[in-house]
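Hi F.,

I've been meaning to write this up properly since the lab meeting, where we talked about keeping a consistent format for the predictions we share between groups. The idea is simple: the sequence comes first, exactly as it goes in, then the structure tokens exactly as they come out, then a line or two of notes. No screenshots and no reformatting. I'm using this chain as the first example so we have something concrete to point to.
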Amino acid sequence: MKLISWNVNGIHAVVGKSFLQQFASMDADIFCIQETKAQDDQVAEALSSLSGYHIHSNSAEKKGYSGVAIISKKEPISIINDIGIIDHDMEGRVITAEFDSFYLVNVYVPNSGEGLKRLEYRSEWDEVFSNFLASLRQKKNVIVTGDFNVAHQAIDLARPKENYNKTSGYTQVEIDGMDKILSKGFIDSYRTVHPDKVQYSFLSARFGARAKNLGWRIDYFLVDERLKENITDAFILDQELGSDHCPIGVTVGI
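Output, unedited:
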């Protein structure tokens, strides 16, 4: 099964470019989108030309903000929006699709913000989200993907020393949060396949970051450790344009 995930930084913006052609060429069994920046009906309208796919989305109460969607060839058994805690369920950050043998969780993790003003909230989020994943994992295998807004290791960003504990996405609090999620029974599929490869999934639109390859790997497929031997590939499609993030993917026998 081939799974793709992409923070598109606005579904209307990418559909207005070449997203639909890119989507077709990637030919994923399941395609996850983060940061739709649209309400559910707007997501459905933007993707209305896709045939043969089932589209489910979860939107923020605030219009034009956050939002996630799952596009799949197979109809899910069920869809779960959010994580069941009111304080964390207003921003349309999580959607879970249940299939026969696994749950697929698509997440857009909160950014700690400029000046790390949301760092405490982010820490709370990581705790609650890790517990949500653990509860799902008691029922079936779980694959979780999305924009986690953290570079987990120094190899995962171009300038670790300059950013450590100063910049959102590379503080010890956020690193500890990712450790907590992984400790619930998950592995980073990309690092499992490519332990030493330097490649980034986010390159800012500012400062010529893409041309200089000054990026961050903050988008992940975390795979249930019980499926480790089933992973056949994990990749970042860093030549695909349209967003400040790159599509990522994994192929797994499931």
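Notes:
The chain has a mean pLDDT of 96.
The first strand starts at residue 2 and ends at 7.

If this format works for you, I'll send the rest the same way.

G.
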